[in-house]
Amino acid sequence: MRLSEARREAARRLTAAGIEGAARDADRILAAVLGIEPARLRIVDDRDLADDELARLESGLAARAARQPVAQIVGFRDFYDHRFRVTPDTLDPRPETEVLVRAALDLPWASVLDLGTGTGAILLSLLAARKGTRGLGTDISGAALDVARENARVIGVAACFAQADWYKGVTGRFDLIVSNPPYIALDEMAGLSPEVREWEPHSALTDGADGLTAYRAIAAGARDHLAPGGHMLVEMGPTQGVAVSAILADAGAETRVIADLDGRDRVVLAQFPG
């Protein structure tokens, strides 16, 4: 099968499987098989695919038809300025989380604590963008931390990582605390797409309760781990701005809600006076 034919057939198969954005996803999978960027599929020489390439393409298309996320199939997601390894042990970094990174880079800080670091996307993006800073990423999942450490190595960023349940075992103070915690309420899980509900780690998606448990823990430990004048940035669901702001305000913070590029509430910025 020639590359052009394989590309058309891949898009057709994913369309028939009901995959939204089928052509885009087919191109991402085919490009990963060939070891090129998807945009290059339009300009590379049309040629016969090797048997092993066809086999890997078939495997990737079957996985996508089963609703496995493309990032898990190809093994990476581009986020902010870097490419991050993604596995079923980590959340797939979302474009909207880049709002938190940009907000953090507008603040003064030399040290950062990332609670629930996952792939390390937030922490490593920040450290790479601001040379000479230091950071610690924590996660309750040892498997996720392995992915974060590998991402740090590949990107070339020096970062520390520790297995921890929020602040447990974390010492010292930081100029900035960031987190994209599990914020989906248990009763909302059934409404998620199969790509998220069936393939991403539930512990990184939901607290098994009202979706606000993590914010209560993060707010409770903020004063003990923030340097004087330090800031906190937490991502949230688009309907949680009032609730998350109230939790942080009750802990003594001054808060401001930041919207994402679609105009939805996405991040709360908090500062604890004194």
Which helices and strands, and how do they pair?
Layout: H1 3-16, H2 22-34, H3 51-65, H4 70-74, E1 76-79, E2 82-85, H5 98-105, E3 111-115, H6 121-129, E4 134-139, H7 142-155, E5 160-163, E6 174-179, H8 194-197, H9 202-205, H10 213-220, H11 222-225, E7 226-235, H12 241-250, E8 254-259, E9 265-271
Parallel strand pairs: 3-4, 3-6, 4-5, 6-7
Antiparallel strand pairs: 1-2, 7-9, 8-9
Report on the structure:
- It is a single chain.
- The chain has 274 residues and is α/β, with parallel strands linked by helices.
- The chain has two domains: 3-66, Orthogonal Bundle (Helicase, Ruva Protein, domain 3), CATH 1.10.8; 80-271, Vaccinia Virus protein VP39 (Rossmann fold).
- The chain has twelve helices and nine strands.
- The protein has helices at residues 3-16, 22-34, 51-65, 70-74, 98-105, 121-129, 142-155, 194-197, 202-205, 213-220, 222-225, 241-250, and strands at residues 76-79, 82-85, 111-115, 134-139, 160-163, 174-179, 226-235, 254-259, 265-271.
- It is elongated and about 65 Å long.
- 39% of the residues are buried.
- Biggest sheet statistics: 7 strands, mixed
Distance between the termini: 67 Å
* CATH architecture call of the largest domain: 3-Layer(aba) Sandwich
CATH topology of the largest domain: Rossmann fold
Order of helices and strands: HHHHEEHEHEHEEHHHHEHEE
**Over all CA atoms, what is the radius of gyration?**
20 Å
Compute the number of strand runs.
9
Name the overall outline.
elongated
CATH class of the largest domain: Alpha Beta
Helical amount:
25-40%
Tally of DSSP helical segments: 12
CATH homologous superfamily classification of the largest domain: Vaccinia Virus protein VP39
Structural class: alpha/beta
What's the number of domains? 2
